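> call design_seq(struct)
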């Protein structure tokens, strides 16, 4: 009953009261803390919850998440809900499991201040609504920032303004089921008809038959087709059958279904799958599956943001990439990002840069792999930012590679190995004169061209590439490059809590999940840095 009241109040958009739990553990809490041997974050959160969620931060959460108070006060302070959200990331608990843990697990009760409670301190709907608000108001990012603020107050101060950071990504397999074209079409059409069936209070099979798409009546499209899938002829017939079903459903919906005006979203999904995957074959009017993969190919009906991507040249995955920016001096994760698996790495840096601006730090060193080299963060970098990245190997068979051509940046001149000089510009191609190359004694070692001169292309960011190659030649430079390994450790830690498979569907919810995993990572870093006895002294 209490939870029902609480859920109703949640809807009323009211601002909560701050939570002021006792700082000193009670004897019962101290006993629980002593018994925790492995999952030490529970103990750390009990010791530091009043500092992480101090009055100022609780007020900020209340104002940002709940706006101005209109009537009454909801009973659940955001600090408690945020702690539960962090514990969910730490333990991998679903909403139901979290609610159960609040009454069954004394470690959860320790953190949430409800030891021996027989009812959870809030309902599942309150937890879900809180998560939604966190996402809507970008307050999940604020939780990451809060860990950075807490770290800056510790005895080993983390408050650097000039940041040395490394950025890297790892695959996050999507939560939606990946299907082939036949099943994508069947699944989307079933969803469309399912909406009509629910609205009319009828069965899906009945509506599918009425629409002239009996193929969709069963539980499995492929079972309904009942074909030999090794036979190309039968596969072609299957495609025609599924497209006919799509045509029938389109006609059925065009005919108007009772009061229904808007078409169910599933029909748009089915059309999109048809347009991306099907084309006319060599025989006029006969559809065939398109060869290759369309760039923005939909791979899952349930999660339309998922895409096919590559982990390496040979390993493919479907879902997302998670990007993590690690502070190389403190090990804290400062910012994270999620992109569909097919998006270039460079596309994430705009949001990462925004997150850093909010933290009032500026990048002094950026350690990246080559996939991020084309990012705006690198292209538009200020002069003080040093980029560390392994340069591409420059080769040209047995002939002079372009690195043998010296660049004079002051005068924009390129000098070839034989001493001929030509003007150059970044992003352009330098063509040495035919006549000069024709009489050059080094010609055989320089160009294959019988009649023309040697050409050398200059990358738009050639100056940076030259710097990278130069650094790689020295032992100190190679040592610097090895610093990037740290971000791989952070990615592995975060992957340990977040898992390799997404918990949610869609980019934004998975970004939320990544951010709360980054919070868990950062809290571990802080806890590791401060010995237990010092923690109390700092908190006092
Ligand atoms: S072939 Fe032309 S570009 Fe090459 S070294 Fe000789 S003069 Fe220079």
């Amino acid at each position: 009953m209490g939870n029902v009241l609480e859920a109703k109040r949640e809807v009323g958009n009211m601002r909560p009261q701050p939570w002021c739990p006792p700082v000193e553990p009670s004897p019962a809490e101290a006993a629980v803390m002593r018994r925790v041997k492995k999952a030490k974050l529970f103990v750390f959160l009990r010791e530091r919850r009043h500092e992480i969620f101090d009055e100022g931060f609780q007020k900020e959460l209340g104002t940002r998440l709940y706006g101005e108070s209109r009537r009454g006060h909801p009973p659940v302070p955001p600090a408690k809900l945020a702690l539960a959200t962090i514990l969910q990331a730490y333990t991998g608990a679903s909403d139901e499991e979290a609610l159960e843990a609040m009454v069954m697990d004394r470690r959860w009760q320790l953190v949430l201040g409800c030891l021996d409670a027989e009812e959870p301190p809030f309902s599942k709907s309150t937890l879900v609504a809180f998560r939604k608000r966190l996402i809507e108001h970008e307050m999940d990012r604020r939780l990451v920032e809060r860990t950075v603020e807490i770290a800056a107050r510790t005895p080993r101060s983390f408050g650097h303004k000039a940041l040395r950071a490394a950025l890297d990504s790892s695959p996050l397999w999507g939560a939606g089921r990946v299907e082939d074209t036949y099943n994508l079409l069947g699944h989307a059409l079933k969803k469309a008809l399912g909406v009509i069936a629910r609205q009319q209070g009828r069965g899906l099979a009945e509506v599918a038959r009425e629409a002239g798409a009996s193929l969709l009546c069963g539980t499995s499209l492929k079972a309904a087709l009942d074909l030999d899938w090794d036979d190309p002829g039968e596969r072609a017939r299957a495609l025609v059958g599924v497209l006919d079903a799509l045509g029938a459903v389109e006609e059925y919906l065009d005919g108007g279904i009772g009061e229904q005006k808007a078409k169910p979203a599933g029909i748009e999904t089915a059309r999109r799958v048809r347009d991306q995957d099907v084309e006319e074959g060599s025989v006029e009017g006969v559809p065939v599956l398109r060869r290759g993969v369309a760039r923005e190919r939909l791979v899952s009906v349930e999660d339309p943001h998922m895409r096919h991507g590559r982990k390496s040249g040979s390993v493919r995955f479907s879902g997302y990439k998670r990007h993590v920016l690690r502070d190389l001096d403190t090990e804290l994760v400062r910012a994270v990002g999620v992109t569909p698996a097919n998006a270039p790495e460079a596309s994430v840096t705009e949001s990462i840069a925004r997150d850093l601006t909010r933290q009032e730090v500026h990048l002094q060193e950026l350690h990246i792999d080559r996939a991020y080299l084309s990012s705006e963060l690198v292209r538009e970098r200020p002069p003080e930012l040093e980029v560390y990245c392994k340069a591409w190997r420059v080769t040209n068979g047995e002939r002079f590679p372009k690195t043998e051509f010296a660049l004079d940046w002051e005068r924009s001149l390129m000098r070839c190995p034989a001493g001929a000089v030509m003007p150059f510009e970044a992003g352009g191609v330098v063509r040495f004169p035919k006549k000069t190359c024709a009489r050059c004694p080094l010609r055989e070692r320089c160009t294959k061209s019988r009649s023309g001169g040697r050409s050398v292309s200059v990358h738009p960011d050639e100056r940076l590439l030259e710097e990278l190659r130069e650094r790689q030649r020295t032992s100190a430079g190679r040592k610097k490059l090895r610093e990037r390994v740290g971000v791989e450790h952070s990615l592995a830690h975060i992957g340990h809590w977040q898992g390799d498979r997404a918990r949610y569907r869609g980019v934004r919810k998975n970004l939320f999940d990544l951010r709360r995993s980054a919070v868990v990572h950062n809290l571990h870093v802080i806890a590791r840095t401060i010995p237990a006895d010092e923690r109390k002294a700092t908190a006092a």
